[in-house]
Specification:
By secondary structure, this protein is mainly alpha-helical. It has 26 helices and five strands. It is globular, with a radius of gyration of 25 Å. The protein starts with a helix and ends with a helix.
């Protein structure tokens, strides 16, 4: 691509207004990761030919890679405005919607692409991912299967099918499919990574050796090296080679931390604003607000604190539907105000409408169950908001030993942004912010939050489960003790753990890494 870039620049000296050469130069720069320069060349081509559809599309691709989603969306929309049957534009626009979490819009855009091109392999795969995130599991699998009909050896889709099997608890089928992917392409890192998550290693086998070989290759991408580092860290922890495990875990975190800019001060400011707005005075003046519906059970806390386990226990009850991690509350919160202080100007009627809006969206998951769980851990930010829009909602706060909780976070590659998670000191600082905010909620809205200890649940399963059901106003059902047998898809980082009966392996696991976790312990004060 360097030669292509040089040749294009030579041609532009002779033909400075060649839109085709400008577009090709943009593609060459983009392939080298020179995204800003690529955008400049696409802009030049567009200025010369304002109806240049391909340039708008490529412009959108470069912006997407820079994370400029709204700008990329504008470019794709312009391309589609100029050429309404521009198939690739619908796929690329849908990918933006998917990245923004606008999943229904994404599916509609993918469907439009398929209307124009029914055999569009990539669209079936991308559409399957969007449907999976919408928890439309059967439709997701059907979309993947359409892709496989077009190409039985399409490894990206086979990998996604295997992951969907794993989410649904069909572990043997997941393992079989991941291994098929690896047979087809041993360099397909994501399959190695995903397979490691559902494998309990008992020896240094060919699977580990394959990952080690890939890890030391110089041509491996940063993203794939990160995945391999976490996978190998997990493998050597299984083998109880804790020093070697931590070396990989630490390197994976360091590599991940290099991929983005983050300052803990930005989160400090966010937490302080929340406390400033949702003060004791605020709650004193909003005693009788919100929608009285009792459907929601919010399960929240830090990631890796036991939220998935608690939801699985409750979802094993005949009166409860486990809806998983929902973004509804966050969407409503940020829709109703851009500056958090604007919440102070909302009327009691508005709070009731917002609560009703949440219930309407929540009920799309189930019309028949008495209760529906929303297991988005980060909803701990919005406990005050929940209080004023859904005052009769139940809130279960999952707690865990801070050292085990933070170390479990440190061992995880998250699909969503948790920028605090990949540096031990920043992780400890964020955890302290979380503890401080939870204390704020307890002081300002006492008796609104039910605390449940992961360790207590593990050590006294039945006693703690009975108390949990009592809080939720649910009659006792033994099925809640057999949560690992409950057949429902689980798409969180804990999807393998909750398929097992209650176990205590993870309690005090941090002690195996005590010396390596010193920076974390210093910040936590333990």
């Amino acid at each position: 691509m360097i030669k292509v870039e040089q040749r294009c620049k030579e041609l532009l000296q002779l033909y400075p207004q060649s839109i085709v050469v400008l577009n090709i130069l943009g593609l060459a720069l983009q392939a080298q990761g020179k995204l800003k320069e690529a955008v400049q060349e696409y802009n030049k081509a567009i200025q010369l030919k304002p109806d240049y559809v391909d340039a708008y599309n490529n412009h959108g691709n470069a912006l997407h890679k820079q994370g400029k989603l709204e700008e990329a969306l504008q470019s794709y929309n312009k391309a589609l405005q100029l050429k309404p049957d521009y198939v690739i534009g619908y796929n690329n626009r849908a990918n933006i919607y998917k990245a923004q979490g606008k999943l229904e819009k994404a599916v509609k855009s993918y469907d439009k692409a398929l209307q124009l091109k029914p055999n569009y392999l990539d669209v079936y795969n991308n559409r399957g991912l969007a449907l999976q995130r919408l928890q439309r599991w059967d439709e997701s699998m059907a979309s993947y299967e359409q892709a496989i009909k077009l190409d039985p050896n399409f490894v990206a889709t086979l990998n996604n099918i295997a992951r969907l099997y794993a989410f649904k608890g069909q572990i043997n089928q997941a393992v079989k499919t991941y291994k098929k992917v690896i047979r087809l392409n041993n360099n397909y890192v994501e399959a190695h990574y995903n397979l490691s998550k559902i494998t309990k290693y008992d020896k240094h086998d060919d699977s580990i050796r394959a990952m080690e070989s890939l890890y030391v290759r110089k041509d491996i991408s940063s993203k794939h090296r990160i995945q391999l580092a976490f996978a190998l860290g997990k493998a050597f922890e299984d083998l109880k080679e804790h020093n070697k495990s931590f070396e990989y875990i630490l390197e994976g975190n360091e590599l991940k931390r290099e991929t983005y800019h983050y300052k803990i001060e930005s989160d400090m400011e966010r937490f302080n604003k929340i406390k400033e707005v949702f003060s004791s005075a605020f709650f004193s003046s909003h005693i009788k607000t919100g929608n009285p519906d009792e459907t929601p059970i919010f399960i929240l806390g830090m990631p890796r604190s036991g939220t998935t386990l608690v939801e699985q226990i409750l979802a094993s009850h005949t009166q409860v539907y486990g809806a998983g991690e929902l973004g509804i509350l966050r969407e409503i919160y940020f829709e109703c105000q851009r500056d958090s202080k604007c919440i102070l100007g909302l009327s009691e009627e508005t709070f009731e409408v917002l609560g009703a809006s949440y219930i309407e969206k929540l009920r799309k998951h189930s019309n028949s169950k008495k209760f529906i769980t929303d297991k988005m851990p980060q909803n701990f930010w919005f406990i005050g908001f929940i209080k004023v829009i859904l005052p009769k909602a139940k809130i279960i706060h999952c707690m865990r030993d801070p050292r085990d909780n933070c170390f479990s976070i440190f061992k995880t590659v998250f699909s969503k942004e948790h920028n605090y998670a990949y540096n031990l000191r920043e992780l400890g600082q964020y955890y302290n912010l979380y503890l401080d905010l939870m204390n704020h909620w307890r002081e300002t809205i006492p008796d609104f939050i039910y605390d449940i200890s992961y360790e207590a649940l593990v050590l006294n399963q039945e006693e703690v489960t009975r108390k949990l059901l009592t809080y939720c106003e649910l009659p006792w059902q033994k099925s809640c003790l057999l949560f690992h047998k409950t057949n429902r898809p689980i798409a969180t980082a804990s999807y393998t753990q909750v398929r097992r009966p209650m176990y205590s392996d993870s309690v005090n696991l941090w002690g195996k890494y005590e010396s390596q976790l010193k920076p974390l312990k210093e910040v936590l004060g333990h």
